[in-house]
Design a protein that fits this description.
The chain is an alpha/beta fold. It has seven helices and seven strands. The strands form two sheets. Strands 5-6-4-7 form a four-stranded parallel β-sheet, covered by helices on one side. A hairpin with a 2-residue loop joins strand 1 and strand 2.
Length: about 180
Amino acid sequence: TNGSGRHRECLVCVDWRFLLPLQHNQVLEQVWECQEQNKDTHRRQRVVQIPTTVVLGTQKGGTTVLTQSLLFSHPDIVPTTKEIHFFNRQHTFFRHGVPATTRIKYQQTLLQSIQQQETTFVSEKGNLTHYVDATPAYLFLSSRIPYWLLCTAPWVKAIVVLRNPVDRAYSEYNMIKQ
């Protein structure tokens, strides 16, 4: 929702050359331009799913239990590998912000990452699927991740998993000891 209780409509059209977030009324015009420029539109234009939920946490903090036991057992959530690192793959690129002059480079970098994460939209029941990225490392990039999420995918919901630091450290110690 957009805060007013109403749901927002969001559709992203991706051309292999550029990443263009569009309003729903601009999509038909943009798709038509893609078709005019490239007759082979099956290879040139796709609609992709960026994660709809991001899980942040720490090592031995409970993110695995949350994602694999609870989230991935839901029929409308696409099971994936746990730590995709979707939003921090470009950590070095994002370190000093994204200057306007490098926007195309950013779009191409993000597009490559999106193409690796491409997935289906509709579950077997016909419901919209959700795509979860559970990467505990995001918690350590907490000064940057909210900005990246807002710029890249403002619809993403974040789940933060915290654990008593002493219990977490002891659990990590036991894991290393084994």
